[in-house]
Amino acid sequence: MFGAPWQPSFTVEEHESHYRESGRLSHVAAYFNMATGCVVGLKGTYGLASSTTSTLGVDFDNAADSSTLVAQEMQLPKGESIISVDYKVGSCIEYLRFITNTDQTLQIGNPDSPKSLQSSKPAPGSYLGFFKATVDSAVTVTEESAAHPLQQLQLIWVKAECKHAPPGDQLVIPPNAGVDVAAAANGLRIVAPQQKQKQQVGSKPSRKQPSKAVAKPSGIQKAQQQQQQQNLRMAQAAAPETPTDAASSKFP
Fold it and tell me: DSSP of 190-207, one letter per residue?
């Protein structure tokens, strides 16, 4: 939250319900009061098909004196979103600049303010979802329908994978989870993460061992083997028996 120093008379206003019900920001308008040198209002339009528009602070329709107001606006077509916001703050918000992922820019206020330029950027893959702000209910307005000027602003960055992704965003579900039919009907693209096959503990991956070819002996080799065995038996039969000394005998 940045802007004017906090006062007990500040009340919080937000666009969260519009974002959840209608979808992403599709249009932004900002209002600057030349007499006070402050950004006094932000109007956000949420959704493309059935859009919802709401103002935080003052716009041309609810200003007590619209003659001192100037406005800047920016259209956000499908696929375009705000990914960076620069601002300068003194006793109020003196300057704002919104930058999209296609380098479209909206700036409002006094860029030559001596206050330091600060920036707010989300984590990679995130974008500006919606606004929260405070207005000062103690500020006197001359007309019953007039709004109180914006005092502080909070930027809510979101990711497309969030649990409450608006229509058209990608919703990642955990493995083995049932598909939400209502979510699919609202245009959510259901993506199930890829699972890796798990190997049981202690098990070794099976490897197919190459089979060894066993050579069969030829007919000549068989005859040679039989002849050698026969010669061995004849030599054993012809050898004389030699008495053995039990003390020096050696067993085979």
Answer: EEPPPPPPPPPTT-----
Backbone angles phi, psi at 36, to 5 degrees: -100, -15
* Side chain identity at residue 148, one-letter code: H
* Beta carbons of 160 and 122 less than 8 angstroms apart: no
pLDDT (average), residues 188-194: 44
Buried b (16+ CB within 10 A) or exposed e, 120-150: eebeeebbbbbbbbbbbeeeebeeeebbbbb
The amino acid that residue 188 corresponds to is: L
pTM for the complete prediction? Answer: 0.61
Q: Classify residue 219 as left (phi > 0), alpha (psi -120 to 50) or beta.
A: alpha
Alpha carbons 19 and 166: distance in angstroms, whole number: 7
On the question of pLDDT at 104 being above 90, the answer is: yes
Element housing 153 (H / E): strand 150-159
CB 129 within 8 A of CB 158: yes
Tell me how far the alpha carbon of residue 247 is from its chain's centroid: 90
| List of residues 6+ apart from 183 with CB closer than 8 A | 171, 190
**pLDDT one-digit tens code per residue, 114-126:** 999 999 999 999 9
Contact 21, 112 (CB under 8 A): no
Region of residue 20 (left: phi > 0; alpha: psi -120 to 50; beta: else): alpha
Look up tokens 């599709």; give the residue. Answer: 26
Under the banding of pLDDT at 50, 70 and 90, the label for residue 251 is: very low
State how far the Cα of 93 lies from the Cα of 251, in Å rounded to an integer: 108
What is the distance between the alpha carbons of residues 166 and 143, in angstroms, rounded to a whole number? 37
